[in-house]
Amino acid sequence: MITLFLASVPTSAVLLSPPSWDKLEEALPSASRPRPVHFDSVLDRSTPTFSNSVPTLFRERHGWCPYSERVWLALELKGVAYHTVTIDNTGGRPSYFAGSTPQMRWADGRTQGESNDLVKALDEAFPDTPPLWPPDGIPSSEVSYMVSEWKRTMPLARPSSRAAFLFDYDGDPLPRTTFEKALGRADELLGTHSAGPFFCGATVSAADVAWAPFLERYGPAVKCAGIWTSREMNYWGLGLP
What we know:
Radius of gyration: 21 Å
Largest sheet: 5 strands, mixed
Mean pLDDT: 85
Strand order of the largest sheet: 1-3-2-4-5
């Protein structure tokens, strides 16, 4: 049956030629903008010259920290020009940085932390860019509600930016029922608005920025910890390609 079916399909429909990674990268909205100036504090121990015209994001160097990714996502979604300094949170921090990631050094020299506060501050600082808290046509209270539900939904766990909401205070993986409860609630919230696939409907908002980095990391994390099988991960939409 499969052979007969393929024989009846035009060759052009079967022999697809997927675009290269370079072509896919060119199609990204961010490809039309210059890359942010990037300063790696591990490879270069000198103090960078900070911009007095664009903000500088201090984010975790290895891509582990979901809180850093929140602010990074917001900057990219809004199309804001920025510089970035990557920090090694495992040790050897530069002398000019103190505290936790993420932090923003604004163009006027002020520094500010806390990821959700920074996402909201970006809307205030750059009113001519696409708003996230809230997007046009969505009440601010709805975005705030979805952001606050993240904190109420994610399980009680050992604090960690590298393995957020995965292990208890004894270092053991949280029980699978805990993950199922959290993801079930996330799925319920995503189904609140039928107008689109995002937490607040058809438009991406600060709520998606708040949730996405953590849900993104659950996929490989629960697989590596042996909490779920591949079939179970696919059920929750966490399967790896």
